[in-house]
Design goal:
By secondary structure, the protein is mainly alpha-helical. The protein has five helices and no strands.
């Protein structure tokens, strides 16, 4: 039966460990990575052949064209009320929320709470 390693630091694979040992012994050279050359080579694959022609631009325009007619926005005049009357604001607030804000306590609600008593009594 083989032993199972329970070390959490054992993140290297066997191949990586062998390469490291071979490099230390001088049997193998470290692989050289040229990031800028790889980046330049990757640019070649980022654009397809059709995108380099006018057919690509036409295909992109056709794919992103809206399916339905979009109406132009209309300017709606909204004259500002220069009076500054607070009652106008109050009436506007009642139009938006005619029942009042949630959590409003009325006298009837307080009276009903008194009649019901306190919790646990």
């Amino acid at each position: 039966m083989s032993e199972v390693s329970t070390e959490s630091n054992n993140s290297q694979t066997f191949d990586a460990q062998q390469i490291a040992e071979n490099v230390e012994a001088g049997e193998q050279k470290l692989p050289q990575v040229d990031v800028s050359a790889d980046y330049e080579a990757s640019k070649e694959f980022s654009v397809s052949e059709i995108d380099r022609t006018s057919a690509g631009a036409e295909a992109a325009a056709a794919a992103t064209a809206p399916k339905f007619a979009i109406p132009a926005p209309q300017e709606i005049p909204m004259p500002a009320d220069a009076k500054g009357n607070p009652d106008d604001f109050l009436s506007m607030a009642k139009e938006v929320n005619p029942t009042g804000a949630p959590g409003n306590v009325t006298d009837d609600l307080v009276q009903k709470a008194i009649e019901l008593g306190t919790p646990g009594s």
